[in-house]
Specification:
Pathway: Amino-acid biosynthesis; L-lysine biosynthesis via DAP pathway; DL-2,6-diaminopimelate from LL-2,6-diaminopimelate: step 1/1. Keywords: Amino-acid biosynthesis, Cytoplasm, Isomerase, Lysine biosynthesis. It is an enzyme of class 5 (isomerase). This protein is of the alpha+beta class and about 290 residues long. The protein folds into two domains: about 5-115 and about 270-290, Diaminopimelate Epimerase, Chain A, domain 1; about 125-265, Diaminopimelate Epimerase, Chain A, domain 1, CATH 3.10.310.10. The protein has four helices and 20 strands. It has helices spanning about 30-40, 75-90, 180-185, 225-235; strands spanning about 5-10, 15-20, 45-50, 60-65, 70-75, 95-100, 105-110, 115-120, 145, 155, 155-160, 165-170, 195-205, 210-215, 220, 245-250, 255-260, 265-270, 270-280, 285-290. The chain has an 18-stranded mixed β-sheet that branches. A two-stranded antiparallel sheet has the order 9-10. A hairpin with a 6-residue loop joins strand 19 (about 270-280) and strand 20 (about 285-290). Bound molecules: 2,6-diaminopimelic acid. The site of 2,6-diaminopimelic acid has 19 residues, from helix 2 and helix 4.
């Protein structure tokens, strides 16, 4: 058995995150370990952010992102803020360049403790999402759920923030939809060969949105950073809002999204530490650090 690795249970606006310190070791967090940690109420999480030694000069760490079902994700905005806060608390460093499977990611902790993550450039081509068939205009694709002549949700915008997103626009309260019922059907719809994160968005002004997300591989979450970015850019490119918006997520918190003139999407918000422990990356067996016990 490999030795135990330190971890911190954190959250980004209620998005449940485990930051796993895998620096200085060659093993990986296994899908079995992820599934075991997700099944335990104390360590229940939406994503594990596994911090590994850097692979590329100019980056501080390689980060692997694992969903609660044991599958991998290419992006996790809320988790990235948690990684920044954990590393900043350890080293005092404020500006970071990470590498993920989707590329290079820059992030910065501000004086007030909030953290901005440059989530990169959104992609809108149907092959980039990816979709299973050609759609020239991904601002609204043909996809609906509910009765054929009276769909409950229809014509989502789709976007890639490194990971696939579909955003369904609604006029009324985002809470009036059974996302726990529609989410799994849409996540696994054949139009999305790599599945997709499914969101419902209500535009409340030129600068504000309400958003709920069913996450691929994790289900309903209290916040999803990359979905917030995908919703913000989709709202702007469909003329619903300007390029800077504040998005209210299910936890009641807000994320600020700025789709900059250079096409990069910058997400700003908080991160919160809950407790620390150590775990076995092969099995998910874990213990809480003693100083955390009241
Ligand atoms: N919670 C994450 C997104 C996780 C996306 C993941 N569920 C996927 O498979 O793409 C965030 O804050 O961006």
């Amino acid at each position: 058995m490999a030795s135990e690795a330190p971890f911190a249970k954190m959250n980004g606006l209620g998005n449940e995150i485990i930051v796993a310190d895998m620096r200085g070791r060659a093993d990986r967090v296994t899908p079995a370990a992820a599934i075991a940690l997700a099944a335990d109420t104390a360590t229940r999480f939406d994503q594990i952010m596994a911090i590994h030694d850097p692979r590329t000069p100019g980056t501080v760490n390689y980060i692997e992102i694992i969903n609660s079902d044991g599958t991998h994700a290419q992006a996790c905005g809320n988790g990235t803020r948690c990684v920044v806060q954990a590393l900043s608390a350890e080293t005092g460093q404020k500006v970071f360049t990470f590498e993920t499977v989707a590329g290079i990611l820059n992030a910065e902790e501000h004086e007030d403790g909030t953290i901005s993550v440059d989530m990169g450039v959104p992609r809108f081509g149907w092959q980039d999402i990816p979709l299973a068939e050609e759609f020239r205009d991904t601002r609204a694709i043909e996809l609906q759920i509910g009765p054929i002549d009276q769909p409950v949700l229809h014509s989502p915008s789709v976007a890639s923030m490194g990971n696939p997103h579909a955003i369904f626009w609604v006029d009324d309260d985002v809470w009036s939809y059974d996302l726990d019922r529609f989410g799994p059907l849409l996540e696994n719809h054949p139009i999305f060969p790599e599945r997709a994160n499914i969101s419902i968005a209500q535009v409340t002004s030129r600068e504000t949105l309400n958003l709920r997300t069913w996450e691929r591989g994790a289900g309903l979450t209290l916040a999803c950073g990359s979905a917030t970015c995908a919703a913000a850019v989709s709202a702007a490119r469909t003329g619903r809002t300007g390029r800077t918006v504040t998005v209210t997520v299910p936890s009641g918190g807000t994320l600020k999204i700025d789709w900059r003139a250079d096409d990069h999407v910058v997400m700003t918000g908080p991160a919160e530490w809950e407790f620390s422990g150590s775990f076995d990356p092969a099995t998910g067996g874990w213990t809480r650090d003693r100083q955390d016990v009241a």
